[in-house]
């Protein structure tokens, strides 16, 4: 049965649905009639409503465009230094390596339920600072108000916190961090904390706190910490001391077995008392604690020119197994006659190769190494004016290690020391670190060394010599057997020679 909208409306009027049954029932009956007459279900929508909906849609889009315009005008991308972990890195790794588990610093994880337990200890630290310095809280709040916009510009995306909330967070989190830094150097009891304090003491939980505080998403701008410490020490323009306190605090996370010397510790403690700066990184500055830690690792290390994204974008590629191959694995290099020896230096990245010997510094791997390397790699990926030296080293190690046997041999050579459960865990750690990392293999400080190693590997004479040493000179019995075989061969040759010689030249 067919019909039109006018037919339905006329029939509705004739039957007086609204007057007899009320508006709700009339609407239901009207819908049933539309279905019976094979009319479209949305026939009751009038043109004014359609125009109104379209107008609201256009207005909504204009509002979003205006917001985008304001974001572009207000944002200072040049000051951005504390990034959110890119999804392509986060999805390929363990989320616990990027998200703090005990304490939040900065706005990204501020107010999360599982981290609120630490807030009361933050308030305790602020209260302790105010009592010790006999200063008013307004001094800190006013100082942070002055640099609020500069601090906001360090973070990625809009921050939902109000001005007062953001300033309060800077003061609370910043004083908490400084109390931990100073306690690790001067001693927490010297700052007035009990030796049994659940947080402000060098206890087991401190290692987990250190791991949280080195994460990229859990950073405070270094100039904020400099300002807060300067207020405490009566020198608002103080710079450099926080960076060295951070190095002392994060020293247990270093991927080497060389701790900070006692002399350096004494210099840090004396500089706190005299407010003189002891700052080996002063000529480089620093963005935040993770940046300072990374600079310390690479100190006096390779310093290539900053990457220019536009010029090199076409060369960047995902570091998968087909394209990130800088070097062959340990087992294959051994078969080509390359030997491994430990270098005596605390710069774990400083690898040398000469005359078939690959000299590598010792690397200490513990339960925080994975999180540390992942956050360092993420920072190198995100920050444009940052070299990729840590990423290059990790990919180089990933190439070297393909199996637990490779790890075992490097451990035997004294190159790898680990506190994990097995060699297989170490191999898995390196094989997963850079699965989805964007990396240009030609922009690695280890590329020239890798080319030298590969050139040596591809030389057939080296492979033959290595095979001879492996098969015939691997132990004393093999050497004796080889010598005996050579002597027997020479005697057989001599006997054959004199037999033939006697046949053709018989004695007269």
Automatic annotation (TrEMBL):
<dbReference type="InterPro" id="IPR004158">
    <property type="entry name" value="DUF247_pln"/>
</dbReference>
<protein>
    <submittedName>
        <fullName>UPF0481 protein At3g47200-like</fullName>
    </submittedName>
</protein>
<keyword id="KW-0812">Transmembrane</keyword>
<keyword id="KW-0472">Membrane</keyword>
<dbReference type="Pfam" id="PF03140">
    <property type="entry name" value="DUF247"/>
</dbReference>
<keyword id="KW-1133">Transmembrane helix</keyword>
<feature type="transmembrane region" description="Helical">
    <location>
        <begin position="477"/>
        <end position="500"/>
    </location>
</feature>
